[in-house]
Amino acid sequence: MKDSRRLMRPISTSLSQGNYIGAYVIAFSIFEDRINAMYATRKHLQRGRYPTPHSVYNTSFKRRLKVLKNAGDIEQTIRNDWKICANDRNEKLHAAMWNINEFKKKDAEAVLKRSREADKLRKQQKSKEGV
Questions:
Q1: pTM given for the model
Q2: How many Cβ atoms are within 10 Å of 75's Cβ, its own excluded?
C-alpha cells in the first residue's frame, strides 16, 4: 500500500467518526513533515549536508517557509497561505483547552488540502533538484 494512502486512512476514519480534532492534528503533522523534508533538502543543497532533525525543529515554521520561498521552492502566495494555516493551528489548539468543539470538519479538510499541496511541491522539488 502506498504510504500516502496509509497515512490518510486515520484522517478519513477520524473525519467519518466526527473526531475533527484528531483528523486536524494528524493532517497538520503530515503537512509540517512535508515542509520539514523540503527545508532539509534545501539546506542540503545549499550547504552540502543535511541539517540535524534538532536543527530543523529549532528553526521556526515561518523561517522554514521563508527559506523555501527564497529558494523558489514555494511561491509567496503559498507561503502566505501556509503561515495563516500555522497561525490558525496555534489559535485552535490553544482554544481547544477550553472548547474541544473549536475544530470543525472543514478545518481538518483545509489542512489536508495543504498537506497534499505540500507533498506535491516536495515531489517537484526532488525532481527539479535531482535528489
A1: 0.83
A2: 12
